[in-house]
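Course assignment 3, question 2. Fill in each field.
Student: A.L.
Task: Predict the tertiary structure for the chain below.
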Amino acid sequence: MPRIATAAPLAHITLRRYEKPFQMERQELVRKLCLSLGLLQPGDSRDIIVDIFSVLLDAKEPISVEEITTRITPPSQTRHRTIKHPQATQAPQ
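Answer field:
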């Protein structure tokens, strides 16, 4: 028996209408670009994505992950942060 194709969507498209960006700050423009590319959802508080994308837009040539990190992270916060699992911090019994 031949297989019949179903009409199930593989993806969805969201259209957003924005005002023309005449008096908008650059960070807000990059945020709108990230929203339109699907990297962010409205109401997201993940500003790091906007910062990374802004650094990539400013770069004139390919840059490494380490350079992106140094351009985003202020020098006082360059220490590597680790998140410890609550069970890992308990003493064995």
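Instructor remarks: Residues 45-73 form one domain. DSSP finds three helices and no strands in the chain.
Grade: pending
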